[in-house]
Structures are given as C-alpha cells and as structure tokens.
Amino acid sequence: MQLFGIPNCSTVKKAKDWLQHHNIAYEFHDFKKNGVNHTLIEGWLTQMSWDKLVNRTGMTWRNLTDAEKSSIQDADSALKLMVEKSSVIKRPILVKNGKIISLGFNEATYKDLLS
Description:
Layout: E1 2-5, H1 10-21, E2 27-30, H2 31-34, H3 38-45, H4 50-53, H5 59-62, H6 66-71, H7 75-84, E3 93-96, E4 99-103, H8 107-114
Parallel strand pairs: 1-2
Antiparallel strand pairs: 1-3, 3-4
C-alpha cells in the first residue's frame, strides 16, 4: 500500500498517524521529494475525475492567477497542472495494488477500508 502526499500537510500527518497506530504497513510517496509524473497521474485520472484530484481549497490553488485557474477545464489541463505543481493534488491519496482506495483522510473511511 502507498500513501501519497507531502509530509508537512496536517491531513497527511493524520493519515500516517492512523496507519501507524493500527500497524498497517505502507510506503510513503512524498510529492516534494519523489515528484509525480504523467503516467502516475494518468492512471489516477482513469479512476477518479480530475476535479476531485485537484484541491481547489489549498494555498497552491489560491496562489494561481485567475488565468491559470480558468485554464483548468479538463483532464488534460489538470494533468499538466498536477505534474507541474504537485501540491495542488488533493491529499493524501491511499493506493492499494495500483488502485486509489481513499482520497483525503477520514478516520471512519480508513477504519471501514482497512480494519
């Protein structure tokens, strides 16, 4: 199982703490250190719509210009943005056997999925 995100994100910290507390093994993929690529994001886009993967409430999105924001209209434009600015990806993303099983962190959802 893999957990994707950035280490200083409070939601990612909650997910990591929950997984560790429940002795669930995972590999952490740090967007900042390991980056993301077209292949990874394309795979996610086959499983989930781009508008769910793009975090429109975070600082990265808010710091985009209005022109940049309005240019994100479809999966292709979102993919380009997510590869260029990985911090705009909603996090954490929990992946098992190549499939997204959870986006964001919700304790009840993790409990249902992993207990």
